[in-house]
């Protein structure tokens, strides 16, 4: 069934140039969107919500790093050939023929989405939809199976839940992040208005 579902999604590629370009853009833009989203969480919120949003950004980064670390270990111990290695597919982007399971992109975007859902962030549903579209794009462009995306989402949910539940134990590390930002504001004074000081009770 994994391959059959892959064929259905990937079968749409190569027929509509605008759809191909859109999916390529979505899948290639993930690192830039992630950076923009973290900056958005850190800087955009009003004063009352700023600490809450900054904690969400930090927890999301922790979840991404932990999820990608787990995935790196998984890739070392288990190899599953990518669709374009095992089958004739419509491959729209170049990619190394490394292990397919699970998708790094899916771990990255779903770690952020799951963190925002668990934190009940106001942007949780748009970000969750974006994560799902990114997962579909990885299948569409021919570099991942559906199981790779679903596996990435499950790992992401697990690590996000772990990070949120471990928030008290992680607090010293979070404070290191805030301390580093405080030091940065000494050199870039206009960033000081986004400081977390006196706001941490809102987390």
Automatic annotation (TrEMBL):
<feature type="transmembrane region" description="Helical">
    <location>
        <begin position="22"/>
        <end position="45"/>
    </location>
</feature>
<protein>
    <submittedName>
        <fullName>Undecaprenyl-diphosphatase</fullName>
    </submittedName>
</protein>
<dbReference type="GO" id="GO:0005886">
    <property type="term" value="C:plasma membrane"/>
</dbReference>
<dbReference type="Pfam" id="PF01569">
    <property type="entry name" value="PAP2"/>
</dbReference>
<feature type="domain" description="Phosphatidic acid phosphatase type 2/haloperoxidase">
    <location>
        <begin position="57"/>
        <end position="164"/>
    </location>
</feature>
<feature type="transmembrane region" description="Helical">
    <location>
        <begin position="57"/>
        <end position="79"/>
    </location>
</feature>
<dbReference type="InterPro" id="IPR033879">
    <property type="entry name" value="UPP_Pase"/>
</dbReference>
<keyword id="KW-0472">Membrane</keyword>
<keyword id="KW-0812">Transmembrane</keyword>
<keyword id="KW-1133">Transmembrane helix</keyword>
<dbReference type="InterPro" id="IPR000326">
    <property type="entry name" value="PAP2/HPO"/>
</dbReference>
<feature type="transmembrane region" description="Helical">
    <location>
        <begin position="125"/>
        <end position="143"/>
    </location>
</feature>
<dbReference type="GO" id="GO:0050380">
    <property type="term" value="F:undecaprenyl-diphosphatase activity"/>
</dbReference>
<dbReference type="InterPro" id="IPR036938">
    <property type="entry name" value="PAP2/HPO_sf"/>
</dbReference>
């Amino acid at each position: 069934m994994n391959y059959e579902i892959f064929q259905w999604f990937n079968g749409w590629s190569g027929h509509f140039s605008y759809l191909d370009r859109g999916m390529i853009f979505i899948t290639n833009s993930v690192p830039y969107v992630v950076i923009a989203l973290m900056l958005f969480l850190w800087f955009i919120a009003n004063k009352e919500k700023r600490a809450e949003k900054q904690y969400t950004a930090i927890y999301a980064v922790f979840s991404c790093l932990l999820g990608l670390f787990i995935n790196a270990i998984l890739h070392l111990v288990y190899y599953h050939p990518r669709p374009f290695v095992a089958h004739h597919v419509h491959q729209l982007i170049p990619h190394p023929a490394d292990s397919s399971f699970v998708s790094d992109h899916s771990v990255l975007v779903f770690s952020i989405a799951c963190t925002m859902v668990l934190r009940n962030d106001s942007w949780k549903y748009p970000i969750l939809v974006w994560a799902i579209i990114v997962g579909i794009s990885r299948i569409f462009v021919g570099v991942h199976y559906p199981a790779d995306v679903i596996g990435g989402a499950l790992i992401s949910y697990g690590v996000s839940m772990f990070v949120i539940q471990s928030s008290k134990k992680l607090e010293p590390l979070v404070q290191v992040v805030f301390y580093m930002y405080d030091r940065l504001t000494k050199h870039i004074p206009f960033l000081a208005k986004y400081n977390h000081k006196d706001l941490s009770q809102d987390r």
